[in-house]
Amino acid sequence: MKVTIFVEGGGDSKEQIVRCREGFRKLIEKAGFTRPKSPAITACGGRGRAYDKFKTFAAISDSGHPILLVDSEDPVNDVEEDPDSDAAWKHLKARDGWERPAGVGNDQAQLMVTCMETWLMADQKALKDFFGQRLHTNALLPLHNLETRNRHEVQEALQHATRDCGKDRTYAKGEKSFKILAELEPATLKEHLLHFRRFIATLDLHL
Fold first, then answer.
1. Which of 67, 188, 174 minimizes the C-alpha distance to 119?
2. Are residues 8 and 81 in the same domain?
3. How many structural domains compose the chain?
4. What is the pTM (predicted TM-score) of this model?
5. Cα dihedral angle (25, 27, 28, 34), rounded to 10 degrees?
6. CB 3.0–4.6 Å: which of 11, 66, 136, 202 could bond 57 by disulfide?
7. Neighbouring C-beta atoms of residue 195, cutoff 10 Å
8. For residues 59-86, average pLDDT
9. pLDDT tens digits along 97-110
10. Cis (ω within 30 of 0) for the bond into 83?
11. Are 87 and 125 in a shared domain?
12. Are the beta carbons of 127 and 135 closer than 8 angstroms?
Protein backbone atom coordinates (compact mmCIF):
# COMPACT_ATOMS: atom_id res chain seq x y z
CA MET A 1 0.00 0.00 0.00
CA LYS A 2 1.34 3.42 -0.92
CA VAL A 3 2.34 5.56 2.06
CA THR A 4 1.88 9.34 1.83
CA ILE A 5 3.35 11.59 4.52
CA PHE A 6 1.58 14.91 5.10
CA VAL A 7 4.25 17.02 6.73
CA GLU A 8 4.17 20.46 8.29
CA GLY A 9 6.60 22.90 6.67
CA GLY A 10 7.23 25.31 3.85
CA GLY A 11 4.81 28.07 4.81
CA ASP A 12 3.05 29.81 1.93
CA SER A 13 6.08 29.87 -0.41
CA LYS A 14 6.06 27.48 -3.36
CA GLU A 15 9.85 27.51 -3.32
CA GLN A 16 10.00 26.61 0.36
CA ILE A 17 7.38 23.90 -0.12
CA VAL A 18 9.71 22.30 -2.67
CA ARG A 19 12.71 22.67 -0.34
CA CYS A 20 10.75 21.18 2.55
CA ARG A 21 9.69 18.15 0.54
CA GLU A 22 13.24 17.64 -0.72
CA GLY A 23 14.74 17.86 2.76
CA PHE A 24 12.40 15.24 4.18
CA ARG A 25 12.82 13.05 1.10
CA LYS A 26 16.60 12.95 1.46
CA LEU A 27 16.45 12.21 5.18
CA ILE A 28 13.94 9.40 4.70
CA GLU A 29 15.97 7.92 1.86
CA LYS A 30 19.06 7.88 4.09
CA ALA A 31 16.98 5.96 6.63
CA GLY A 32 16.71 3.20 4.02
CA PHE A 33 13.39 3.97 2.36
CA THR A 34 14.44 4.32 -1.25
CA ARG A 35 12.52 3.53 -4.41
CA PRO A 36 10.42 1.56 -5.04
CA LYS A 37 9.32 1.57 -1.37
CA SER A 38 9.91 5.26 -0.65
CA PRO A 39 6.84 7.13 0.63
CA ALA A 40 5.25 10.07 -1.14
CA ILE A 41 5.79 13.34 0.73
CA THR A 42 3.34 16.22 0.69
CA ALA A 43 4.68 19.43 2.25
CA CYS A 44 1.62 21.29 3.46
CA GLY A 45 2.79 24.56 4.98
CA GLY A 46 1.26 25.12 8.42
CA ARG A 47 0.21 22.51 10.96
CA GLY A 48 -3.50 23.08 10.47
CA ARG A 49 -3.21 22.73 6.73
CA ALA A 50 -1.28 19.47 7.14
CA TYR A 51 -4.04 18.08 9.36
CA ASP A 52 -6.78 19.18 6.95
CA LYS A 53 -5.06 17.60 3.95
CA PHE A 54 -4.42 14.43 5.94
CA LYS A 55 -8.10 14.19 6.91
CA THR A 56 -9.25 14.69 3.33
CA PHE A 57 -6.89 12.02 2.06
CA ALA A 58 -7.80 9.60 4.84
CA ALA A 59 -11.50 9.88 3.94
CA ILE A 60 -10.83 8.33 0.52
CA SER A 61 -10.98 4.59 1.12
CA ASP A 62 -8.64 3.57 -1.69
CA SER A 63 -6.13 6.42 -1.28
CA GLY A 64 -3.41 4.39 0.44
CA HIS A 65 -1.94 4.86 3.91
CA PRO A 66 -1.60 8.52 4.96
CA ILE A 67 0.65 9.59 7.84
CA LEU A 68 0.50 12.99 9.53
CA LEU A 69 3.87 14.44 10.62
CA VAL A 70 3.74 17.74 12.52
CA ASP A 71 5.54 19.59 15.31
CA SER A 72 4.17 18.73 18.73
CA GLU A 73 4.73 22.40 19.69
CA ASP A 74 4.86 21.34 23.36
CA PRO A 75 6.46 18.38 25.15
CA VAL A 76 4.39 15.19 24.97
CA ASN A 77 2.92 13.50 28.04
CA ASP A 78 2.80 9.71 28.41
CA VAL A 79 5.66 9.24 25.97
CA GLU A 80 5.73 5.83 24.26
CA GLU A 81 7.95 4.56 21.46
CA ASP A 82 5.56 1.85 20.26
CA PRO A 83 4.09 2.80 16.85
CA ASP A 84 0.69 1.62 18.11
CA SER A 85 0.71 4.04 21.04
CA ASP A 86 -2.14 6.53 21.00
CA ALA A 87 -0.06 9.21 22.79
CA ALA A 88 0.35 11.31 19.64
CA TRP A 89 -3.38 11.48 18.95
CA LYS A 90 -4.06 12.25 22.64
CA HIS A 91 -1.54 15.09 22.47
CA LEU A 92 -3.08 16.55 19.32
CA LYS A 93 -6.58 16.29 20.81
CA ALA A 94 -5.56 17.95 24.08
CA ARG A 95 -3.43 20.69 22.55
CA ASP A 96 -5.18 21.46 19.27
CA GLY A 97 -8.61 19.89 19.54
CA TRP A 98 -7.84 17.63 16.59
CA GLU A 99 -9.97 14.51 16.36
CA ARG A 100 -8.64 11.28 14.96
CA PRO A 101 -10.56 10.58 11.73
CA ALA A 102 -12.66 7.42 11.58
CA GLY A 103 -10.67 4.37 10.54
CA VAL A 104 -7.28 5.99 11.19
CA GLY A 105 -4.74 4.07 13.27
CA ASN A 106 -2.56 5.17 16.15
CA ASP A 107 0.61 5.15 14.08
CA GLN A 108 -0.83 7.53 11.50
CA ALA A 109 -0.06 10.46 13.83
CA GLN A 110 3.67 11.20 14.10
CA LEU A 111 5.26 14.09 15.97
CA MET A 112 8.46 16.10 15.76
CA VAL A 113 8.95 16.78 19.45
CA THR A 114 8.85 19.57 20.08
CA CYS A 115 9.66 20.95 16.61
CA MET A 116 11.69 20.19 13.51
CA GLU A 117 14.58 22.18 14.99
CA THR A 118 14.82 19.49 17.68
CA TRP A 119 15.78 17.09 14.89
CA LEU A 120 18.43 19.54 13.71
CA MET A 121 19.77 20.03 17.24
CA ALA A 122 20.08 16.27 17.70
CA ASP A 123 22.73 15.98 14.96
CA GLN A 124 25.36 18.41 16.11
CA LYS A 125 27.97 17.06 13.70
CA ALA A 126 25.69 18.02 10.81
CA LEU A 127 25.35 21.51 12.31
CA LYS A 128 29.14 21.84 12.58
CA ASP A 129 29.61 20.66 9.01
CA PHE A 130 26.96 23.09 7.72
CA PHE A 131 27.91 26.22 9.67
CA GLY A 132 31.65 25.72 9.97
CA GLN A 133 34.19 26.77 12.55
CA ARG A 134 32.37 29.92 13.64
CA LEU A 135 29.51 27.91 15.08
CA HIS A 136 29.36 28.40 18.87
CA THR A 137 29.10 24.75 19.85
CA ASN A 138 28.90 25.65 23.54
CA ALA A 139 25.57 27.37 22.80
CA LEU A 140 24.01 24.16 21.48
CA LEU A 141 21.71 22.31 23.85
CA PRO A 142 22.74 19.10 25.63
CA LEU A 143 21.46 16.00 23.85
CA HIS A 144 20.06 14.36 26.97
CA ASN A 145 16.26 14.68 27.18
CA LEU A 146 16.25 16.94 24.14
CA GLU A 147 12.58 16.25 23.42
CA THR A 148 11.58 17.80 26.75
CA ARG A 149 12.88 21.22 25.65
CA ASN A 150 10.46 24.01 24.79
CA ARG A 151 10.43 24.74 21.06
CA HIS A 152 11.36 28.37 21.61
CA GLU A 153 14.39 27.30 23.62
CA VAL A 154 15.56 25.02 20.80
CA GLN A 155 15.05 27.63 18.09
CA GLU A 156 16.71 30.39 20.09
CA ALA A 157 19.69 28.16 20.88
CA LEU A 158 20.23 27.54 17.16
CA GLN A 159 20.07 31.25 16.43
CA HIS A 160 22.47 32.07 19.26
CA ALA A 161 24.94 29.35 18.25
CA THR A 162 25.06 30.67 14.67
CA ARG A 163 25.17 34.39 15.47
CA ASP A 164 28.78 34.81 14.27
CA CYS A 165 28.64 32.51 11.26
CA GLY A 166 28.64 35.38 8.78
CA LYS A 167 26.23 37.49 6.78
CA ASP A 168 22.96 35.65 6.08
CA ARG A 169 24.29 32.57 7.88
CA THR A 170 22.44 32.91 11.19
CA TYR A 171 19.93 30.12 11.58
CA ALA A 172 16.41 30.88 10.41
CA LYS A 173 13.42 28.77 9.44
CA GLY A 174 13.06 28.13 5.75
CA GLU A 175 15.82 27.49 3.25
CA LYS A 176 18.57 26.81 5.82
CA SER A 177 16.45 24.53 7.95
CA PHE A 178 15.53 22.28 5.04
CA LYS A 179 19.11 22.19 3.74
CA ILE A 180 20.31 21.05 7.15
CA LEU A 181 17.46 18.54 7.38
CA ALA A 182 18.74 16.87 4.22
CA GLU A 183 22.19 16.47 5.81
CA LEU A 184 21.05 14.81 9.05
CA GLU A 185 22.05 11.23 9.84
CA PRO A 186 19.07 9.04 10.75
CA ALA A 187 21.21 6.87 13.04
CA THR A 188 22.13 9.93 15.11
CA LEU A 189 18.51 11.05 15.37
CA LYS A 190 17.43 7.55 16.40
CA GLU A 191 20.04 7.59 19.15
CA HIS A 192 18.71 10.78 20.74
CA LEU A 193 15.03 11.12 19.75
CA LEU A 194 12.38 8.60 20.83
CA HIS A 195 9.75 10.05 18.51
CA PHE A 196 12.07 9.81 15.51
CA ARG A 197 12.59 6.13 16.35
CA ARG A 198 8.80 5.72 16.46
CA PHE A 199 8.48 7.44 13.07
CA ILE A 200 11.06 5.13 11.46
CA ALA A 201 9.53 2.05 13.10
CA THR A 202 6.16 3.07 11.63
CA LEU A 203 7.62 3.38 8.14
CA ASP A 204 9.21 -0.06 8.59
CA LEU A 205 5.76 -1.49 9.26
CA HIS A 206 4.21 -0.10 6.10
CA LEU A 207 6.99 0.03 3.50
1. 188
2. yes
3. 2
4. 0.96
5. 80
6. 66
7. 23
8. 93
9. 999 999 999 999 99
10. no
11. no
12. yes
